[in-house]
Amino acid sequence: MKYTKLNFMMSVLGIIIYITDLIVDIWLSVRFFYEGQYVFGVLTVSFMLFGTLVVQCFSYSWFKADLKKAGQESQHCFLLLHCLQGGIFTRYWFALKKGYYVAFKYSSKTGNFIEEQIDLHKEAIDIMTDLSMLRLFETYLEGCPQLVLQLYIFLEHGQGNFSQYAAIMVSCCAISWATVDYQVALRKSLPDKNLLNGLCPKLTYLFYKLFTLLSWMLSIVLLFFLNVKIALCLLLFLWFLGIVWAFKNQTQFCVSMIMEFLYRIVVGFILIFTFFNIKGQNTKCPMSCYYIVRILATLGILIMLWLCPLSIFNSDYFIPISIIIAFTLLLGILLLIVYYGTLHPKRSEEMKPDEIDGKSAQIDCRVKYFLME
User: Which are the contacts of 12, defined by CB distance < 8 A and separation ≥ 6?
Assistant: First the structure.
C-alpha cells in the first residue's frame, strides 16, 4: 500500500474538476435568474445546496470520529468551516499537503522504519479515499439531477447556449471522474482487494457506468416531457425502494444513528441512477435484478412515448434520442458483462500479513461499508 505521485496528480485533477463544476453551476444559475427563468434557476441552486449540505454533514461527522479515535477534542474551527460550506476545500488542503509530503519528499528519505512508512502512506491513502467518497456522494446528489435538468432544458428549446453545453460536459466529466477515482481509491485503501490496474479495466468500468447512466437519464427526461407527475412519482418510488433496500441490508456505515439514517437516504437516492454494493457482499443476484428492472423500465418508457407521441419539443429529436437510449443501454450492459466477466479485479483470497513489517492486514477504514462495484 503506497501513495504515489500519480495519486497526488489525481487529487490535483480532482480539485480542478470540482472547482470547474462549481463555477459552471453558479454561472448557469445566475444566467437563469438574469433571463427570467426562475424555476430553472431555483432548481439549479436547490440541487447544488442539497448535494453540498449532505456532504458537509458527512465530512464533519468523519472529522469528529477521526479526532475522537485519535484521542483529540473536536475543534470548533472545523464546525465553522463546514457551516461555511468549506469542508471539501479543507479536506483537499489536508489531502494535498499530506500527499505532497508522502509522494515527493518522504518517499525519497532513507533510514525510515518500514512500519512508519506504511502508516504514513496509509494515512495519505485514507485521506484521499475519504475525499473521493465525499466527491462521489456530491456528484450523484447534485451532478445527476443537474444533468437531467440541463438535458430537459436543451430538448425543450431545441438548442442551448454555451453555459448549458458547458454544464452538460462538466457534469459528465465530474460523474465519470468521481466514479473511477473512487473505485481506484477504494481498492488502494483496502488490503483484501486487488488494485484496479491498467487502462482497459478503468475505461471499461467508466463507460459501463457512463452509458447506463446516460441511457437512464435520457429516458427520465423523455418521461418528464410525457407527464411530470408520472416521472416524479417514478423517481420517488425508486428512491423509496432504495431506502428500503438499505434498511433491509442493515448498513453499518456511520457511528451515530442519525448519520446512518441520512446515509441510507443517500444510498436510496444514488440507487435511482446506478447500482453499487452497500455491504461488501456478493451482489451478483441483486445487480442482475437491478439492471433487468432498468432494461424493462427503459423499454416501458420508450413504448409509452411511441404510443403517445410528444408534441412539446421538436419531434425530429425523438427518433435519434430513442436510438441513443437503446444503443447506450445495450452497450453499457455489454461493457458491464465484459468488466465483471474478464476485467474485474478479483477479491484476493490469499492475502496474508507481510512477514517483514509483522502487521496484520486490517481493514479499519470506513470504505469497507461502501463498495461501489
Answer: 96
Give me the percent of the chain exceeding a pLDDT of 70.
83
Q: Is 214 exposed, middle or buried (0-12, 13-18, 19+ CB in 10 A)?
A: buried
Measure the CA–CA gap between 32 and 24, rounded to whole angstroms.
12
Question: pLDDT-derived band of residue 18, with 50, 70 and 90 as boundaries?
Answer: confident
Say what angle helices 162-189 and 114-138 make with each other, to 10 degrees: 150
Classified as helix, coil or strand, 371 is strand
The values of phi and psi at residue 350, to 5°, are -120, 25
CB count, 10 Å around CB of 71? 6
Quick one: cell of 206? Answer: 467508466
Residues 166/24, Cβ–Cβ less than 8 Å: yes
Provide the 3-class DSSP secondary structure of residue 277: strand
d(C-alpha 242, C-alpha 30), whole Å: 33
pTM of the complete model:
0.84
CA separation for the pair 168, 206 (Å, rounded): 17
